[in-house]
Design a protein that fits this description.
This protein is mainly α.
Length: 570
């Protein structure tokens, strides 16, 4: 970022981080991030679009009632498995592990391949654990439903759907493992396609079986979609490696290469489960509210998460760069990348948040209000979206900060590095879990206090308050971990972006309130939000807004000049 950055060094006792090996660890730069982000953004947008179509069909066919509540409780299994096994825990563990293996491969090109040795050391154990979890979730579906939603109106249907969705655990785990491998190799196309395949599988079964199977067709579609995801990545992984010399297989670890640190997995898994527990709190408290409440919360969350997901795409692409820098011991380069990611992710998410604040009623009416989904459902869902949106920036910032935190304690280490404390965990390793646990307590406390009076809005407020608390605590933890963020710069940038978002939301709300039809209201409100956010962000000096605006103006300049010269040349 700037040429006067201080030199960052590892904290004492953190011997899991190797010494500096900059030459081996520097990946391709230049236009790599932009190209990878472009591919990931386009394919992820396609997956999100299909996911939105999936939710539209769920609303159209089944509305918001006790049947959809039962399915959504069953959907808790894949909703929990997906962050644990695909995007969060598995990525936090395996992207740094594969990045370190790639550094070793570059340093020792003629020895046994550390990447293949890492696969031999980890994949068989993972498959055994996944099969065990799948069986446990299917067999224990009855007690699980009773624990998650004791006040559910149709528990038998929820148990049936849960047994079906439990079959997603194994393919999700394979998908997460292969995504980490491919992204560490800077292969982003196939991982970006997984939700296209997933939602195509759901849509196919939903369209063909909703009349005969009812909401069970959605559960079957989720399982079929997970199998399509795994098949897609298996094909991509087979094309990844060439005819590289592999050497003698290792017994539990690679010879002279990488050693597995199983205990390092525990804080990562605990963090992901604690983070996902916010959904458990909502389902538990929501099951005692009128039928349809869980469905309103679900539809609101799906729309709200679109804004957050767009910001996380940036981190998905840059995480391998951060992990590679940390594998080489270059904390200064990692710090610079994290600071940039915090600003860019916040800019994208706050723009989306301002849009949702301004246009939530028209967006919900445009997307869902048809078939069994009536005006009452539209109003209830839009109100929840606006409350949820207060927590979206914090969700994105947590996604940025937790990746480098866990990368500093990888699940593998170099066999030759000193590791006096490698067999035990330190209190700081559990800091993200503690931060999320405090946030979960805030979520539960606010939910319990506000739900009797405000219903679903109280649950949404608890979610926003809890995730924001966790984000503040995790920012402190990142500093303790050794990523020396320049807080004045980071917080000043966040404040400028927040001010731009507040102004854009106010202007967009006024614009969207004019048209009565949902489509014109959404278009007018969205355009107003975008223009005001761009103008205010540029005026306030936020580089995450100013630089793209200037790039667009420079690109539009030659086009405008050519259009102006064309009549004179006739």
């Amino acid at each position: 970022m700037s040429g006067d950055r201080p030199t960052a060094t590892a904290q004492p006792g953190r011997s899991a981080v190797p010494g500096p090996r900059h030459a081996a660890a520097r990946p391709r730069r230049g236009g790599f991030v932009a190209r990878a982000f472009g591919v990931t953004a386009v394919l992820s947008a396609a997956g999100s679009g299909l996911g939105l179509l999936r939710d539209l069909l769920l609303a159209r066919y089944f509305g918001a009632n006790q049947g959809t509540d039962a399915f959504l409780v069953a959907w808790t299994v894949p909703e929990t498995a997906a962050p644990l096994l695909i995007e969060d825990a598995m990525a936090f563990l395996m992207v740094p592990a594969f990045s370190l293996a790639l550094v070793l491969r570059e340093e020792h090109p003629h020895g046994p391949d550390p990447v293949r040795q890492l696969v031999r050391a980890t994949l068989p154990r993972l498959l055994l654990a996944l099969c065990t979890l799948t069986l446990a979730a299917a067999v224990g579906a009855g007690p699980l439903v009773g624990l998650l939603a004791p006040g559910l109106a149709d528990p038998a249907l929820a148990v049936t759907c849960t047994r079906i969705t439990a079959l997603t655990v194994l393919p999700f785990g394979v998908v997460g493992y292969l995504c980490s491998m491919l992204r560490a190799h800077h292969r982003f196309t196939a991982p970006a396609c997984i939700y296209v395949a997933y939602n195509l599988g759901i849509l196919a079964v939903l369209l063909g079986g909703h009349a005969l199977l009812g909401v069970r067709s959605a559960a079957l579609g989720v399982t079929c979609g997970s199998l399509l995801m795994a098949g897609l990545l298996l094909a991509a992984a087979r094309r990844l490696h060439g005819t590289r010399r592999t050497g003698r297989p290792a017994r539990g670890a690679s010879d002279g290469g990488l050693l597995l640190i199983p205990l390092a997995m525990l804080p990562v898994a605990a963090f992901t489960l604690t983070r996902q527990a916010q959904v458990f709190v909502e389902r538990f408290l929501g099951s005692g509210l009128p039928p349809g409440t869980i469905s309103h919360l679900n539809y609101a969350a799906k729309v709200s998460q679109l804004a957050m997901t767009a910001g996380i795409l940036i981190v998905t692409v840059t995480f391998p760069l951060v992990a590679r820098a940390l594998a080489a011991g270059d904390l200064a380069a990692a710090r610079d990348r994290v600071e940039k990611d915090l600003g860019q992710a916040a800019a994208v998410v706050l723009l989306g948040t301002a849009f949702l604040m301004a246009c939530a009623p028209s967006v919900v009416a445009l997307l869902f209000q048809r078939g069994a989904f009536g005006p009452h459902d539209t109003t209830a869902t839009a109100e929840v979206i606006r409350v949820y949106s207060f927590g979206l920036p914090a969700q994105a910032l947590i996604g940025v900060m937790v990746r480098p935190f866990f990368s500093l304690r990888p699940v593998v280490r170099r066999a030759g590095d000193p590791q006096p404390a490698g067999s035990r965990l330190r209190p700081l390793d559990w800091y993200p879990v503690a931060a999320m646990a405090v946030g979960l307590l805030v979520t539960a406390g606010v939910g319990l206090a506000a739900t009797p009076r405000y219903g679903a809005l109280g649950l949404a407020a608890g979610n926003a308050a809890g995730i924001t608390t966790a984000a503040v605590l995790l920012l402190r933890g990142l500093l303790l971990r050794g990523i020396a963020l320049r807080l004045r710069r980071v917080l000043g940038g966040q404040a400028r972006l927040l001010a731009a978002a507040v102004g854009a939301a106010a202007a967009g709300t006024a614009a969207a309130s004019g048209p009565s039809a949902p489509l014109p209201a959404t278009l007018l409100g969205g355009l107003t939000v975008a223009l005001v956010f761009a103008g205010l962000g540029t005026a306030l000096g936020a580089p995450e807004v100013r630089d793209p605006v200037r790039a667009l103006l420079r690109a539009a300049g030659p086009v405008t000049q050519a259009a102006e010269r064309k009549p004179h040349g006739r």
